[in-house]
Amino acid sequence: MGVTALYIALSVIGSALFLVLLISFICFIMAFYVRKEKVKAEFPIPPGEIYEPYRDVMVNWMKEARAMTPKEVSVKSFDGLTLYGKYYEYSKDAPIELMFHGYRGNGERDLCGGVQRCFSLGRSCLIVDQRTSGKSGGRVITFGIKESRDCLKWIDYIIENINKDAKIIITGISMGAATVTIAAGENLPKNVIAALADCGYTSAKDIIKKVIKDLKLPPNIMYPFVKLGARIFGGFDLEKYSPIEAMKNCTVPIIFIHGTTDDFVPYQMSVDNFNACTHKVKKLVTVENAGHGLAYLKDTEGYFKGIREFDEMLSMQEKL
Q1: Contact 119, 303 (CB under 8 A)
Q2: What is the pLDDT of residue 190?
């Protein structure tokens, strides 16, 4: 091969590598990177027309929660980030729900109504701003990979700083559900008595490919760039952990809740997670005609009914 041909070959290879890195970087920015911006809306609700009918209810929930003047708490993540949460105490000995919000959301927006629901059930709650959101540190969302390790830190915080004998329910919505289902595959402290996963996905790969398809792009072609972007620019393996794999080693009782008309995270994903779960105490609550994250608002009575039936399952298990 002559010098000119070698130069051309190297130029082509270099250009191809640059293009791969450029596309991967763009995918990283779009999927994982969070630029901190000051929240402009006084009472932010999730974007999308499906949430508009519930705006007034959600705003009232936020107002009521703010009036309770919760205790602000924080932990250090395994990789040095300061993470913040708000603790609402029902009573000193009440069970505590540790609650995680969804993708690019925050605790108040995605879990508004969570305080009222917990209090109605006689529970305290600790609502967390996951890494990258609210006051919490970080710029990279990892779809539950690192967030599940943050969950373990928060569990330890409750035991060490609130109540060493606390009964803890780890709860999450959307990506928060992925956070808790992945954590549920770990050897958790005995304090953790259950998990609640509302409209969670089976894996980061599955939901990302679904979103790529929704954007009218070829998922099998684009996904490798997303995965590479996460690895190179985000420093994490997108496929290291997944909710559905964690369910094969689930260590705590778990309840799945999902709306049938969820057009963001398909209802079938919760069905698949439920079927994969190996724990003998598990329940799937189906909410008809509920969109993404709207199961509680769409059918509050059915939501409570499902949780109370699950609580009865837990009580029966304790008696055995």
Answers
A1: no
A2: 96
